[in-house]
Amino acid sequence: MDTRPMVSSLLSTLANYSNLPQGCKEHEEAENNEAEPARKKPVKAPQLGTLMGVYMPCIQNIFGVILFLRMTWLVGIGGVIGTFIIVFMCCATTMLTAISMSAIATNGVVPAGGSYYMISRSLGPEFGGAVGICFYLGTTYAGAMYILGAIELLLIYIAPKAAIFPIEGLEGAEAEAALLNNMRVYGTILLTSMATVVFVGVKYVNKLALVFLACVILSILAVYAGVIKTGIEPPIFPVCILGNRTLVWKNFDVCAKTLETANGTVTTQLWNIFCDSPFLNATCDKYFAANNVTQIQGIPGITSGVLADNLFGTYYEKGDLVDKSLLESVQDHDEPVTNANRYVLADITSFFTLLVGIYFPSVTGIMAGSNRSGDLRDAQKSIPIGTIAAITTTSTVYMSSVFLFGACIEGVVLRDKFGEGVHGNLVIGTLAWPSPWVIVIGSFFSTCGAGLQSLTGAPRLLQAIAKDGIVPALRIFGHGKANGEPTWSLLLTACICESGILIASLDAVAPILSMFFLMCYMFVNLACALQTLLRTPNWRPRFKFYHWTLSFLGMSLCLTLMFICSWYYAIVAMGIAGSIYKYIEFAGAEKEWGDGIRGLSLSAARYALMRLEEGPPHTKNWRPQLLVLVSTDAEQNVEQPRLLSLTNQLKAGKGLTIVGTALEGTYLANHEQAQRADQALRKLMETEKVKGFCQVTVSSNLRDATSHLLQASGLGGLKHNAVLVSWPRNWKHGDEHQTWRNFVELVRETTIARLALLVPKNISAFPSNGERFSEGHIDVWWIVHDGGMLMLLPFLLRQHKVWRKCKMRIFTVAQMDDNSIQMKKDLTTFLYHLRIDAMIEVVEMHDSDISAYTYEKTLVMEQRSQMLKQINLTKTEREREIQSITDSSRGSIRRKNPAAVTTQLSVTEEPPATSKEEKPEEEVQLIHDNTTPASPATPATPLTPAEETQSPGEQIQRTWTEKCDGKAAKPLGVTTEEDIKDIFNMKPNQSNVRRMHTALRLNEVILKKSSEAKLVLLNMPGPPKNRTSDENYMEFLEVLTEGLNRVLLVRGGGREVITIYS
Question: CA-to-CA distance for 511 and 567, rounded, in angstroms?
């Protein structure tokens, strides 16, 4: 137990008093260590309690220049009632903010940065950075306001003759300009001096902290002592009034026109001011001649009853005369005011909202305790008690001073901003006891001290923001001297402060910093309310006397006061904060601080997901929510990056996008590969600007993994309604046997799940996001109504800059018995109601005989499937076997129908330049088998170099009786020559013949109409019910799209996706 006497404890505490933010003492110690390296490291000062650690710094920060320079003027202009309302609103705002701040500050340790730290850790880096910078700007402009206040005290009340630009003899705008220029010059000099003191060492500021605190307390006590004295013996401060106009008491000694002496009546100095000669018959100012001069007591005292006259406000326009309305005045209102510089005039236009903006800075400074939490013995106890006690004390002083000023001081003196009517004295100083100089000197030193504290605290706040790394542009300001002093931050602070000093008007600067402080306080309240409502598990403040309704009330008051003070400043401040927010969101470092906005996002997401469960979206709200299935190579790199480019062009950042890939194996064995694949997907999504989620699924085989992706992707009502997967490239190669089977199974699964399916063919030929089509067409071949998918997709694509200049064409097919003219009219009307701009063409397809080419092509397809089931050869031998059958079939087709072959070759001999893998049918190997082992590669496995360089002639020259070594091969297994002869004697299935005929005829028509189109969209037919026909299904689709550059096969999900209704 400490046995030291109480006086010793008090002196020790006072000796260690500091009003500097956390971190300054460490810098001071570092400076001492540099200066005296040989000395032992100084003993750390004892940690501070509530009184010296929180209460006194808050008192010193809250009481400031506005109380001494503007409080009496506010009471005079706004009236006792109006000013009391302003004071009550502002004090209530800070009290509610202090309650919210206490809750946040006692919910864990608050390091350096104070309010910035609290807001950023509660609302996230975006809000924290934006509000932190606003708070920094507010603190910096507060420094400018304090400096301007100190210069005003110096030039008007302490040393008027020190003015560089003389004001004597100037009137109106000239006098005002001279005063502002003096403020700018002296303000810059004082700012430079203060910045130098802060740069040299914070320890010098710290040593003066107690002096500044004493000045504040003594000044306020002097005012209260003066109020008490007015009740006993009011001070003599006469005010001279001509008619009802208050005179500037300068260059005259007696408030009278003439004086009676023993030698008769003589004129006074006042007479000489308004008349052209000292004689009684002189020509005088009309108003002076018509009205009497009255001398009234400026400080009538608390018992005088003057309070009743000061209850209500008197607002002036700039240049209006400050008058006493109760006195009579003889004047001609049409006559202009002469000798205006002899009267006390209003220097600015006043109104209620202006008074709010000017007054609010006098209640700021409530964060002084929370900024020093590291220096406190028990921060979680001291911050709430000290801050709330300080606000209670200052609010009591402010509210009482409103009534006391109104009850003690004459109204014309209150409205006299610069005390011109009371011999140029500071108005609040006239009330003070024992002398006005107590207030003048005390307020000068306290404002200088407050300016030093602002220039000390603001750079450290900026340094804390810069060190967090959330604003990349501010990183340089995180550095400083070797001991941590924020040199660069101090330089920027001085420059911003200089911009406030150049404004040169205390009344103009005060509303600016009011905006920034109000915004900061608003977000402190929001942070507390949000944490309380979300009930996050970590929200356990020791301070229990808070409630979310109080926080919301405080937030509402802050927002209201912002717009009351100045709506345009409020908009500018919000614009600055919004710009910083978006900049941090765009370029800032990602931080996970467990902030409330993330919790709010989770709550909002849960609520939205629960709402989505109520039912499927209306047709008007339907948009493709894509599940994009991509494949990866052995290094987990995505093989079809253009698939994500197409995704971006379809989505343009809207709706849901899930990019998924499947890996083969077990999750335990392939966890690292899955993580690499996930990172590759995220990187590619970022590159292609695809906003969405990625998902990697590992299963024993690729088919099951893809099925799991299809079933499990999404959450609740937020699920995909369309699947985007590329066409299996090189599917006719034996290596890709399982790939195309997986593809057909995927088509079946999307059908049963009622999901739309989009299959781009030749995806590598699709444009990247950086390309632009300056012209061209997107052709839609509308064969079957699929719910409107074919109409909607081109519309979505044309919203993207890649496809914006492409025009849309819709082709529909008419049979012989259809009325093509009526079909075109109906389709035109339908598109008009859909608000889709497109050219329409009806293509007539006449029934014709099935050509020998179609017949033989179908036969070759069926022979191949049948033969592969019967012949038990190795894979290489099968390839050669089928190639020889294909060659013989070609020969028979050419003999039977040479014209048809010529037509087909004319189409296929000119494949698109960008589609290397799409070779003409005659040049593609047709090899597949059920027993071919699944390739570990994914659907987009490219041809090997050997396969790509192999010429068609070399492939055709091989026969099925040759092996790789050129020796004859013997039949294997149970296959005999008779079996093979049966295959070549079989007849094709008639339904297959009809399908092949339709596919060939459609392909011919599409090539004729859309060979130059930038993109062709086609209906994708449904998969066969019988799995034995899977290969035929792939062949039909291949024939249907043969020779086309970019094709998007579309299969609807069984619901309408577009509507004519609004």
Answer: 11
CA distance 99 to 551: 8
Counted domains in the chain:
4
Q: Token pair of 222, please?
A: 């002097």
Same domain, 626 and 595: no
Answer whether 1038's CB lies under 8 Å from 1020's CB. no
Burial of 583 (0-12, 13-18, 19+ CB in 10 A): middle
If phi > 0 it is left, if psi is from -120 to 50 it is alpha, else beta; for residue 478 that is alpha
Query: Is 301 among the domain residues?
Result: yes
Q: How do residues 461-479 score in pLDDT, each as one tens digit? A: 888 888 888 888 888 888 7
Choosing from 721, 744, 771, the residue where a domain stops is 771
pLDDT band at 708 (very low <50, low <70, confident <90, very high): confident
Q: Is residue 647 part of a domain?
A: yes
Residue closest to 784 by CA, chosen among 1017, 1027, 1001: 1017
Domain ranges, residue 696:
620-771
Domain end, chosen from 737, 771, 805, is at 771
Q: Are residues 658 and 781 in the same domain?
A: no
Q: Where are the alpha helices (DSSP H) in 698-842?
A: 702-712, 737-752, 789-797, 820-833
Read off the CATH number of the domain in which 819 is found. Answer: 3.40.50
Peptide bond into 434 cis (omega under 30): yes
C-alpha span between 156 and 420 (Å, rounded): 10
**742 with 805, same domain?**
no
The backbone torsions φ and ψ at residue 316, rounded to the nearest 5 degrees and listed phi first, read -120, 150
Q: Same domain for 879 and 800?
A: yes
- Rounded-to-integer distance, Cα 786 and Cα 722, Å: 13
Single-letter amino acid, residue 390: A
Same domain (yes/no): 731, 745: yes
Is the residue at 3 inside a domain? Answer: no
Phi/psi at 800 (5° precision): -90, 150
CA distance 797 to 806: 10
CA quadruple 524, 529, 530, 531: dihedral, nearest 10: 90
Pairwise CA distance, residues 690 & 651, whole Å: 8
Burial call 282-292: b when 16+ CB within 10 Å, e when fewer:
eebbebbeebe
Write down the pTM of the prediction.
0.69
Strand partners, 630: 661
Length, in residues, of the chain? 1062
- pLDDT tier, 752 (very low <50, low <70, confident <90, very high otherwise): confident
Q: Which residues pair with 807 in a beta bridge?
A: 777
Chain-centroid distance of CA 186 in Å reads 40
691 in the same domain as 605: no
Question: What tokens appear for 287 in the block?
Answer: 């108003």
Q: Are residues 727 and 635 in the same domain?
A: yes
Look up residue 366 and give its two tokens: 């409530």
Distance, in Å, from the CA atom of 187 to the CA atom of 145, rounded to the nearest integer, reads 10
599 plus 637 within the same structural domain? no
Please give, one letter per residue, the 3-state secondary structure of 720-754. Answer: CCEEEECCCCCCCCHHHHHHHHHHHHHHHHHHHCC
Identify any residues that bridge with 662 across adjacent strands, giving them in sequence order: 697
**835 Cβ neighbours under 8 A, 6+ residues apart:** none
841-886 pLDDT tens trace: 888 776 554 444 444 455 555 555 554 455 444 445 545 545 554 4
Cα 682 from Cα 277, distance rounded (Å): 92
- Specify if 894 maps to a domain: no
